[in-house]
Structure formats: structure tokens, C-alpha cells
Design goal:
about 240 residues; alpha+beta; Glutaredoxin; Glutathione S-transferase Yfyf (Class Pi), Chain A, domain 2; 2 domains; 11 helices; about 5% strand; globular; binds glutathione
């Protein structure tokens, strides 16, 4: 492939800056220092037929890499990290690299399967009591599942001084969790609870201030958009 022969790849990222999944691809591209062209997809209206040809599921993100389409944020991120070995992810080959990749993938899997759905579940609850109860459960799960995996973070996963794929995949959700608690979408008790987790809170504070994580982030528009989406979801469920 041309990219591995030293030629600059031609990358188009189909994205929307409010989407946490697309955010993953932005982080990876920035960490790898890869130039890319951006095409913003308006998610407020039905997808144009041309975009359904790019991604028949109609979702963002998608990338076009030297003419090849790749979809699904985790797959896009892993693909780019595999083409360009970097501190994000060691290249395959040998047990040490395989082990590091396995550890990173386990962290990502743990966040995705055990923790990531809580924020949405909490916002769907009607009463403060229900929200607080679920917030407590969320903090409990992060404490049980994630806190031990960050014991050697320094400041990033596995003792890495640079952002790894573990951060690139989870950062959009960590960032939103803190922002949503700050703006009343989630209970403040989530952050108070996180603050009792030394490994997680130290790690998260580093993650959410990285340039690669913040360069497309617009807290105001994301928070407003999320509030509208929650209101619409609640109205539809009545
Ligand atoms: N599993 C997908 C999820 C992507 C996703 O849900 N993207 C949302 C925006 S955050 C989307 O494109 N929604 C368009 C729609 O539902 O119409 C991924 O990881 O890429």
C-alpha cells in the first residue's frame, strides 16, 4: 500500500463534530499527524444518496483512505493505528507487542461493554432519585472495572507517556461525561464519585486536556445539541 512506502496518503474523513464516535477518528488522525480532508455530514436530516454509497449504514465516521472506504469508528481507528505504528499501538510481531495490544483492547472492551451506556441510561431516568441511583452504579462499575486497569498509567494507559488507542477510543466519552455533569445533564455526583478514584481521576484529567482530544471539541454546541436530543427522545417516549 502506498502509505507504507512513505507516500502521504489521501484521507477524507466524513464526520460530524458533535459525534463521539467520529471524535475517535479525529483523535487518531491528530495523534498520527496525518493530514486529512474533512466532509461534515449533517445528521439532522436524511443522508444524501452519495453518502449512503460511502457508508450504507448512513453513520459517521467513515474514511476514504487512498480510495478505500473504511467505516465504524473502532475499525477506522485500529486501521490507521495499524498502518502507522506509533505510541498509539505497537505494531504486530512478537509476544510483547501482542500482549500490549491485548491489554489495550481489553481496556477498550471493558469501557465499551461495562461503562459506556450509563450516561444515556441516566439521562433517560425521570426523577433525580433514579438518576442518582444509576450515577452511583456507574461510579461503582468504573471503580471495579476501570480503576485497577489504570494502576500503572503514567499518565496514559500501560505507563505510556503518549496517548494510546485506549485513550483515543474512550476519550470522547470521558470528555462528554465531565462536560455533561458540569452542565446538569448528568448528576454532579458522577464527578464527585470519580474524584474518589485516584487512578481514574488522574488519568481522566490528563486525557481531557490533550490537544488531539480538544481540537474539534465545542462544549457549548455539543451540550446544547445533547440537551435537545434528550428532550426529543423523552417527548417521543411519552
Ligand atoms: N458504531 C458506530 C456508531 C456511529 C454512530 O452512531 N454515529 C452517529 C452519530 S454520533 C450517526 O451517524 N448517526 C446518524 C443517524 O443515526 O442517523 C461507530 O462506532 O462508528
Amino acid at each position: 500500500m502506498a502509505a507504507t512506502n512513505g507516500d502521504a496518503p489521501k484521507i477524507t474523513l466524513y464526520t460530524n463534530h458533535r459525534c463521539p464516535y467520529a471524535h475517535r477518528a479525529h483523535i487518531v488522525l491528530k495523534e498520527l499527524g496525518l493530514p486529512y480532508e474533512e466532509v461534515i455530514i449533517d445528521l439532522e436530516r436524511p443522508r444524501d444518496p452519495w453518502y449512503l454509497e460511502v457508508n450504507p449504514r448512513g453513520l459517521v465516521p467513515s474514511i476514504k483512505f487512498n480510495g478505500e472506504i473504511i467505516t465504524e469508528s473502532a475499525i477506522v481507528s485500529q486501521f490507521l493505528a495499524d498502518v502507522y505504528p506509533s505510541p498509539l499501538l505497537p505494531a504486530t510481531g512478537g509476544v510483547d507487542a501482542a500482549l500490549k495490544r491485548a491489554r489495550i483492547n481489553f481496556f477498550i472492551d471493558t469501557w465499551n461493554t461495562k461503562c459506556n451506556s450509563y450516561w444515556l441510561q441516566i439521562t433517560k431516568k425521570d426523577t433525580d432519585e433514579e438518576k442518582e441511583a444509576l450515577a452511583k452504579e456507574f461510579v461503582g462499575i468504573v471503580s471495579k472495572e476501570i480503576e485497577p486497569l489504570l494502576k500503572d498509567a503514567s499518565p496514559f494507559f500501560g505507563g505510556s507517556s503518549k496517548v494510546t488507542l485506549a485513550e483515543a477510543i474512550t476519550a470522547p466519552f470521558i470528555l462528554r461525561t465531565y462536560a455533561y455533569a458540569k452542565h446538569g445533564i448528568l448528576p454532579q455526583s458522577v464527578i464527585a464519585g470519580f474524584n474518589t478514584l485516584p487512578n481514574f481521576s488522574k488519568w481522566a484529567a490528563e486525557v481531557i486536556k490533550q490537544d488531539s482530544v480538544t481540537y474539534i471539541w465545542n462544549e457549548e454546541t455539543t451540550v446544547e445539541g445533547t440537551k435537545k436530543r434528550i428532550a426529543k427522545m423523552k417527548a417521543q417516549s411519552k
